[in-house]
Amino acid sequence: MLRDITIGQHFPGNSILHRCDPRLKLVGTIAYIVVLFVAANPVGIALSIALLALLYSVAKIPFKMILKSLKPIVPVIIFTAVLNLFFLTGETPLFQWWIFTIYPEGVRYAILMAVRVMALIAGTSLLTYTTSPIVLTDAIENLLRPLGKLHFPVHELAMMMTIALRFIPTLIDETEKIMNAQKARGAMLDTGSFVQRVKALVPILIPLFLSAFRRADELAMAMECRCYHGGEGRTRLKVLKFGREDVLCAAALTVLLGIIVCTRFLFA
Amino acid sequence: MSEIIKVEHLSYVYNPGMPDATAALDDVSFSIEEGDFVGVMGSTGSGKSTLISHFNGLNKPTSGAIYVDGRNMWAQGENLRDFRFLVGLVMQYPEYQLFEETCARDIAYGPKNMGLDDAEVARRVREAAQFVGLSDELLEKSPFELSGGQKRRVAIAGVMAMHPRVLVLDEPAAGLDPEGRDTILSQIQEYHRVTGITVVLVSHSMEDIARYANRVLVLSKAKIAMYDTVEQVFARAPELLELGLSVPQVTQIFLRLKEMGLDIATDVYTIPYAVKTIRKALQGKGAV
Amino acid sequence: MKDTMIDVQDVKFRYDPEQPGYAVDGVSMQVRRGEFVAVLGANGCGKSTLAKHFNAILLPEKGTVLVEDMDTRTEDHLYDIRQKVGMVFQNPDNQIVATIVEEDVAFALENLGVPAPEIRERIDESMKLAGIYEQKDKAPHKLSGGQKQRVAIAGVIAMRPDCLVLDEATAMLDPRGRRQVMKTIRQLREAGISIVAITHYMEEAAQADRVLVMSRGRIVMEGTPEQVFSQTERLHSYHLDVPQAAELRDELVKAGIPMPQNVITPEACAEALYALLAQ
Predict the structure, then answer these.
(1) CB contact under 8 A, A207 and B97
(2) pLDDT grade, residue B213 (50/70/90)?
(3) How many CA atoms lie within 13 A of A50 on its CB side?
(4) Chain C closest CA to A30's CA: distance in Å?
(5) B262, C274 in Cβ contact below 8 A?
(6) Measured between CB atoms, which of C177, C243, C251 is closest to B275?
(7) Which residue numbers of C have CB closer than 8 Å to A's CBs?
(8) Does residue B110 have a pLDDT over 90?
(9) Contact residues on chain B for C244, CB-CB shorter than 8 A
(10) Looking at chain A, which subunits does it touch, using at least 3 CB pairs closer than 8 Å as the criterion?
(11) Residue A114 to residue A206: CA distance in whole angstroms
C-alpha cells in the first residue's frame, strides 16, 4: 500500500540528539561520512560503528530501526561486495574456479566496503530519525545562506522542499483515490504485459497531474493572499539557536571523530 | 423481491496489528432488496465510505462476507472484476477521475474494459449520456472544457454505461450549487425509475435523502444505528440529532413545536406533509 | 475611522479581453465596518470573480475598488490591502503551506517581517480565536476538513485584517465542519471583523446582516435575509433555493393558512406556528 511509505522517517523523542541544533547534526553527519572514507582501516571502521551505536542508544532509537533503514539497500551492499570480491587482485589466490579468482585482499575489502556502506546509511538515518523534515529544511536553508550572495536561490529551494513535504501525503492519498475510481471502472492495474500495464497508468497519471497543477495554482493564490513575496525581509517563527548544549556536543563530536581519523596513521 | 446485496458480520480494521488499529466497521449485517433506493447517512468517520467500497471489492473484509446477487465476493474462484461491473461505484468528486480527450471516450472507458464490442459501447455511451442530459455536442468536447456540474455528470454516466445491477454514489451533489444539485439528483431518481436498478446514495444532506430514498441506513461509530423506511427513521429525529446528524429544517420546526408544548407529530420530513399536518392540527382545533 | 471598508464602484472584469462577455458586469457595492455580508448566486454568476477584487488578486478592467480609501490598482498599497482584507478559499488542502499547523499560521507574519516574539503572540491569539490551538503541533494532513479550514482562517486572521472574505469556504465540508467554521465566523464578528461570505448555502446566508444576490455578473437583489428570502419565486428564477423554513411559510400561505412575513429560520417558523396553533 502506498500509505505505508513514510517520508523523512522521523522518530520523535526528546533526547539530547533530538534537541541538538539541526545545523550541527547536518554538518556532523557529513563529517561522519568523510571520516568513514578517510579512516578506511578495520580499527577506524570499528570505532566508527561503536560511535554510531553510542549515538543510537543516546537517542533511544531501537536498533531494529537500523535494520529497517538498511533493508532497502541490501541489494546495493551485495552488489558492491561481490564486485570488490572478484575484481581486487592480490598475490596468492584464496580460491580459483573457471575465470573467477578470489584473493584474501578482495575478501577483506569486500567486508570493509559493505560495513562502511551500512554505517553510512545508518548514520544518515540517525539524522532523519532525530530531526523533523521541516527543521532539516530550515538547517539547509540556513547553512546555504552564504550562497545567496552569489544569487543562488537558497530561499526558493527551501520553500520548494517545504511545499513538497507538505503535499506528498496529500498526493499519495489522491493517487489512491484515483486508482480506486479507475479500478471501479474495471481498470486492470496489476495484470497483463508490460505494455498493457504502462497503458493502464494513463488513466491514473493524467488526473493526478491535472490535480497537482490545480493545487499548485490555488496554493500560489493563497500564498499571494498572505503577502508572500519571496525570501526578502522574511522573518521566522522559529529561529535556530546554537546554545551551550550544542557547543558541548560539537566539541565532543570533534574529539571523537578526530580520534577515529588518527587510526588512519596508526594502523594503516 | 430478492436480495441484491447481503452483508454478513462484516468487520474492517484499518492498520490491523498496529498500535493505531481502528475498526471502521464492526460486525455489520444487513441486506438490500433489488430495486430499492437506499440512503446512507452517518457523520464523517462513521464508516460510510468504508462500507460502500466493500460493495465492489475495493476493500477486503477483515472478517465476514459480502454477497452480491447471491455470489460470495471473496469466495475461491470468484473474479473480483465481475463484482466491479455488478456494482457500479461513483466516488466523491468523481470529475477528478476524467482523463480522456472527449467525454464520449471517457464514458466508454468502463464498457470497453468489460470487453464489449464497439457498437454496443457506442450505444451505451449514448444511452448513459441521455440519462444525465449531455448533448451530442458536449459528448465530443474535452471534459476539461466543461463546467463542474457537467463534468460530474460525465463521470456518473461513465459508471451508468457499465449497466451495473447496483449504482452506488458517494455524495454525488457535494459542492454543487442548488440547481446543479437538483439536476443531478433528479436525473439519478429518473434513472432509478426507468431502469429499476438498485441505487445506494450516500449523503450528508437529510433533505436530499428524505426526498429521494425509500429506505435509510444510518451508521454510527462503525455500527448500524438504524435501517428502516424513511418515515420510520425520521420519526426518530431526536435520536438522529443525538448521533450528531442533522435533520431537515421542517423536522426541526416540528421538534421545536413539540418542545414548546404542542401535541404534534414529529415524523414530518417533507414540505407537503408538513402543510398537511398543520392543516390537520388547525382543523382539530376548530372542532374543539 | 471610516465606516466603509470596501467600496466597489461600477466594476467590470473579464478573463479574456477578446471575449465580449464580462464575468463581473458593472457591480457597485460596499462592505461596512463590522458587517456580515453574504453573496449568493449560482455557479458561474461571477461571485468568486468579484471576491478576488477585494484584495487585489484581480484588478478591475473598468471602475475602481477602494479598500479603506486605497485603490487596489496602486501597487504601493498591495501588501497593506492584502493585510486589511484576508481571503479563505474553498479547498482547505490547497491553502496550507507548512507541514505543522503553527508554522502555517505564522506564514503570513513571516512574510510581513514581523519579529519572532510578536509572531508567537499573534499566532497563539489567532489559533485560539479559530479554535484550533490544541492542534498547533499537528501535521495538517492529519486534521479533519473543518479543522483544516480553521487553520486557514487562523493563518489569515493572524494578519489582523479588518475584513475576512470566505470564498465558498464551507462548500467542501461535512455538516459538522460547516458548523465549526460558522461558529468561528460568529466569533470573528464579535471581535469586530467584517465578513464577506460567498456561498450557496442558504442557511448560512440567513445568518448574515445583508444578502446580495448575483446573476450573470450583476447584483440583482439586495437586502436583509428576511427581505431576500421572502421572494421565493424570484430566487428560483436565479437558480437559487430558499431555506426550507421560508419554503414552508410560502406553501402554508398558498394553502390559505395565515403566516407572518419574513420567516426564514426554523426558530421563527416554529414561533409563528406556535402562535397560530396554541391560541
Answers:
(1) yes
(2) very high
(3) 10
(4) 25
(5) yes
(6) C251
(7) 55, 57, 79, 82-83, 86-87, 89, 91, 93-100, 102-103, 106-116, 119-120, 123, 139-141, 152, 155-156, 159
(8) yes
(9) 207, 248-250, 271
(10) B, C
(11) 42
Residue range C248-259: mean pLDDT, rounded: 91
Domains of chain C: 4-224 (3.40.50.300)
In Å, how far is B211's CA from the nearest CA of chain C?
13
- Cα–Cα distance measured from residue B92 to residue B150, given in angstroms and rounded to the nearest whole number: 15
Q: For an interface test with C, which of A132, A177, A225 has the most C Cβ atoms less than 10 Å from its Cβ? A: A225
Test A227 with C139 for CB contact under 8 angstroms: no
Nearest CB neighbour to C103, from listed A218, A226, A237: A237
Q: What are phi and psi of B163, to 5 degrees?
A: 50, 55
| Cβ–Cβ gap B271/C247 under 8 Å | yes
> In the prediction, which pLDDT does C201 show?
87
Name the pLDDT band for C1 (thresholds 50, 70, 90). Answer: low
Closest-CA distance, B212 to chain A, in angstroms, reads 24
Residues of chain A with C-beta less than 8 angstroms from the C-beta of B162 = 185-186
SS3 per-residue string spanning C71-117? ECCCHHHHHHHHHHEEEECCCHHHHCCCCCHHHHHHHHHHHCCCCHH
Secondary structure element (H or E) that encloses residue A120, with its range: helix A104-130
Domain definitions of chain B by residue range: 248-288
pLDDT value at residue A2: 44
Q: Does residue B8 have a pLDDT over 50? A: yes
pLDDT in tens, C65-80: 999 999 999 989 999 9
| Residue in C175, C243, C276 nearest the CB of B246 | C175
Establish if B245 touches chain C: CB-CB under 8 angstroms: yes
pLDDT tens string B127-140? 999 999 999 999 99
Q: What is the pLDDT of residues C4-42, one digit of tens each?
A: 999 999 999 999 888 888 999 999 999 999 999 999 999
pLDDT tier at B286, thresholds 50, 70, 90: low
Q: What is the mean pLDDT of chain B?
A: 91
DSSP state of C220: E
For testing the chain B interface, which of A171, A173, A185, A191 should be mutated: the one with the most B CBs within 10 Å? A185
Residue B142: CB atoms within 10 Å: 13
Mean pLDDT of B235-259: 89
- What share of chain C in percent tops pLDDT 70? 99
Is-contact C99 C139, C-beta < 8 A?
A: yes
Low-confidence ranges of chain A (pLDDT < 70): 1-9, 268
Label residue B274 by pLDDT band (50, 70, 90). very high
Residue B275 · residue C255 · CB < 8 Å:
yes
Q: Which position has the grid cell 455524495?
A: B171
Q: What is the pLDDT of residues B250-269, one digit of tens each?
A: 999 999 999 998 888 888 88
DSSP code at position C134: G
Q: Which residues contact B263 (CB under 8 A, 6 or more apart)?
A: none
CA B282 to chain C, closest CA, distance in angstroms equals: 7
* A225 to chain C, closest Cα gap in Å: 6
Closest partner residue to B44 among C176, C240, C273, by Cβ? C176
The C-alpha of C78 sits at a distance from chain B's nearest C-alpha, in angstroms, of: 31
Say if CB C67 and CB C84 are below 8 A apart.
yes
C-alpha angle B244-B247-B252 in degrees, rounded to nearest 5: 115
In contact, B134 and B154? CB cutoff 8 Å? yes
Cross-chain residue pair C270–B253, CB shorter than 8 Å: yes
The one-letter code for the residue type at C271 is E
pLDDT, residue A33, reads 92
Strands C85-88 and C163-167: parallel
